[in-house]
Design a protein that fits this description.
The chain is mainly α and 280 residues long. It has one domain. Helices cover 78% and strands 0% of the residues. The longest helix has 36 residues. The two termini are 38 Å apart.
Length: 280
């Protein structure tokens, strides 16, 4: 089975390799438009959010949250809300590897601690009201998933994670470096999936469902400029997250017992309502 899967993967990669040469103009357009989308819709919103969150942590926000809740997971939920995905998975893995949360808590958090950066959603949505509705649905669905699933997990007590304090300039420098590492990774993934989407368009033109499932950022831009019913389609794109984000999450969790399937289950549950609205 694994051998056959490797052969199929090799065949698909060779096909894409040949298509890059044959349709180089399409590849160029896809990459340049993705870079423009990244620069105008992601960097202006995600960079300041990453930096300010790091500064808040440097000056004791994580320690304050532990004193209030006596657990580490409220901090990780906050990270998912304000810094977005895949940063949430990076922090979950870091806390698990360091012994600040156990495996049960890690898997439970994967079910619902997901969110695109809220400033990005506000920036790319057609109106501020639609952005608020999208974020409202996402946060409510995540809260319900957390509430109803918690009884299936044994959430144990945790020891506090003490964040070492740096001087302001050093913390700012480190935060900017770390933020751009994440943003460059996101740019590369957006470009790769944009090329794949353009190639799919050659075979199955205007298949918005497939584009929405593959990559969220490009899908949101396409939906915004289409004649579709914008709100439910954007709900689906944001709720599922796109296979590009799923790939990032699975990669981050490699070599740990933290199970990616919980992230997938959470995103599928959150996608039920928008799918009903779209296909009803």
């Amino acid at each position: 089975m694994k051998k056959n899967l490797n052969r199929i993967t090799l065949f698909l990669l060779l096909t894409v390799f040949i298509m890059i040469f044959k349709y180089n103009d399409i590849v160029k357009e896809a990459v340049l438009s993705s870079m423009d989308l990244w620069l105008k819709s992601l960097v202006p919103f995600m960079l300041p959010m990453y930096v300010i969150t790091d500064l808040l942590l440097n000056y004791g926000l994580g320690n304050i949250l532990f004193k209030i809740f006596h657990k580490n997971y409220p901090f990780l939920i906050m990270i998912s809300l304000f810094m977005g995905t895949p940063t949430n998975a990076k922090y979950i893995r870091d806390f698990y590897d360091s012994g600040y949360i156990d495996l049960e808590t890690s898997n439970w958090l994967l079910l619902f601690s997901y969110s695109p950066n809220p400033l990005f959603i506000i920036g790319i949505a057609p109106t501020f009201l639609i952005a608020l509705k999208l974020l409202g649905y996402l946060y409510i669905s995540n809260a319900l998933i957390a509430l109803f699933s918690k009884r299936f997990f044994n959430i144990s007590n945790s020891k506090p994670k003490l964040f070492s304090k740096q001087n302001f300039s050093k913390c700012l420098e480190n935060s900017i470096n770390k933020s751009f590492n994440i943003l460059i990774l996101i740019l590369g993934i957006i470009c790769v999936y944009a090329v794949i989407i353009r190639f799919i368009d050659l075979i199955i033109p205007n298949c918005i469902f497939l584009k929405t499932i593959l990559e969220m950022t490009n899908a949101l831009a396409i939906i915004k400029n289409s004649s579709l019913s914008i709100f439910p389609w954007m709900m689906l794109a944001i709720s599922f997250g796109g296979l590009s984000i799923h790939t990032q999450i699975k990669s981050i969790l490699e070599d740990t017992p933290i199970n990616y399937k919980y992230f997938l289950i959470g995103r599928l549950i959150a996608s039920i309502v928008p799918l009903i609205l779209i296909f009803n």
